[in-house]
Amino acid sequence: MQHNDKRPMAWWAFGLVNLAVVLAAGLLGWYLLADPKTSPLDVYPLPFNAALFWALMFVVWTGFNLELAGFARLPQPLRGVAYTAATATFAIVVTWLLGHGLGSLVPDFSAAREGGVGYFTGALFVLFGFSTYVMAVVNWNHWPWTDRGLRQPFVGLCEIAALLGPTILLYVVLGIPAVSERVTESGPVLELNTLLGWYYSVVIAIVLTGLCWENWPWRLAGGRGAVALASLVGNVVLGTVLYFALRAVVELVVGSTVTDQLGVAINQFPSQIGVCWVAWMIFWGNAFGNRPTGYGTATNLVCRALITFGLALGTFVAYYYVLAEHVLHEPAVVGALHGNALGFLDWFALVTLLYIVGFGSYPLRAPESAPAPDSQATADPGVPLPDPAVTPAG
Question: Is the pLDDT of residue 367 over 90?
Fold first, then answer.
C-alpha cells in the first residue's frame, strides 16, 4: 500500500526550500528584466527601479493593509498568478503615467530627465509610503479601524485613504525638494543622500520592532492608541540612532579610502546595508517562522536581531564586492564597490513576498506553528500582535 505523506516540513527545511525558490526566480527575473548585460529591455537602473518600488507599494497596500482582499478567495496557484500579474500591471502603469503623463506637465517627473531621474522622483513617494503604511500594519495592527468594528476590505481602504495625506505631505516637504530641478535659496530640508540614509533607517526601525520584535517595546505603552503614538515617536528616534550606527558599520566595512571616495554619498549607505537587513527580516519572519520562539522574551528578540543583521552584513559584503559585478553585471560605484542594493535587494524582497505571501509558498506545506513565545504570553491582551506571515517590505 502506498502512503501519501503530507506531513509538514521542518521549519528550517521549509525556509531553505523557500530561499532556493526565491533566489532562482529572482535571478531568472533579473536576467530577463533588469540585468545590464543580458536583459533585452534596457531599463537598468531606471525605470526598472521605479517600477520595482511601485510594485512593493502595491504589495503593501493590497497584501497587508487590505490583507489580500479580492485575491484570498482564489485557489492556489491561481491566486499567486493573479496577484503577481496585478502587481506587475500596477507598477508599470503607474511608472509610465508619472514619467510620461505627469512628466509632460511637471518637468521634475519627466521621463526625459537625464539618467532617468524623473522616474526616480515619482517613485520616491514609495519611501515615505513604506513608513506610514507598514507602520499601520505591523506597529498599529490596523488601529483605529478594527476597534470601530470594520472588516476587510473597509479596514484597508480606510487605512490607505487616511494615511494618504500624511504620506503626500512627507513626500512634498522632504522628498520632492531633494530631487527637484528647481533650485531655491533655502534648498531641500535634507540632501538626497542623507534623506535616503536617514529615512530608510526609520523604515528599518519599523520592521525591526513590528516584525522581528513583535511590537516590542511599543506594546508596553498600554492601550492601542498609546501603542500607536509610542511607535510613531519611538521609530523616528530609533531610526535616527540606527542611521548613525549603520553608517559607522559601513565605514568600518568599506574602509577609510572608499569612504573618502564616496564623499557625501556615504550618508546614503545606511539604506544600502539597511535594505539587506529589511529583506532578511522579511524572509526570516515569513519563511523561517521568526525563530527562535521558545526562549525568554529578551533572548528571542536579541537572537532574531543578531541572526538577521548577521545575514544582512554578510549579504552587503557579498553583494557589493562579488555578486553585483560578477553575477548581476552591475557597474562600479567607487573602487571595488559595484551596484546599488536598493535595486537588487528590493527585488529579492518583492520576489519573496510574491512567492511566500502571494503564492503561499505553493506547493510547499508550511510547518506546524511554533509554540507561542513568552512575549505573547505576557502581553496586554488588548494589544493584538501583527501576523509575521503578512509583513511588508521596504
Answer: no
Compute the radius of gyration of the chain from its Cα atoms.
21
Q: How many residues are given for the chain?
A: 394
Q: Which among 371, 364, 258, 309 has a CA at the least distance from the CA of 20?
A: 364
Can you tell me the distance from the alpha carbon of 270 to that of 252, in angstroms, rounded to the nearest whole number?
Answer: 12
The Cα–Cα gap between 178 and 161 comes to 26
Residue 378 in domain: no
In DSSP notation, 283-313 reads HHHHHSTTS--SS-HHHHHHHHHHHHHHHHH
> What range defines the domain where residue 352 resides?
26-357
pLDDT tens digits for range 281-298:
999 999 999 999 999 999
The dihedral through the CA atoms of 133, 134, 135, 137 has a sign that is positive
Using CA atoms, how far apart are residues 218 and 228, in angstroms rounded to an integer?
8
Instruction: Report pLDDT for 311.
Output: 98
Q: Is residue 377 part of a domain?
A: no
Query: pTM of the entire structure?
Result: 0.92
Q: Could you give the CA distance from residue 338 to residue 285 in angstroms, rounded to a whole number?
A: 29
Report how many domains make up the chain. Answer: 1
Q: Is 191 among the domain residues?
A: yes
Lowest mean pLDDT among 180-184, 224-228, 280-284: 180-184
Map residue 54 onto helix, strand or coil: helix
Helix (H, G, I), strand (E, B) or coil at 279: helix
- Report if residue 380 sits inside a domain: no
Q: What are the contacts of 168-176 at 24+ separation with CB within 8 A?
A: 168/125, 170/128, 170/131, 170/132, 171/124, 171/125, 171/128, 174/128, 174/199, 175/124, 175/125, 175/127, 175/128, 176/108, 176/121, 176/124
Confidence of residue 373 (pLDDT cuts 50, 70, 90): very low
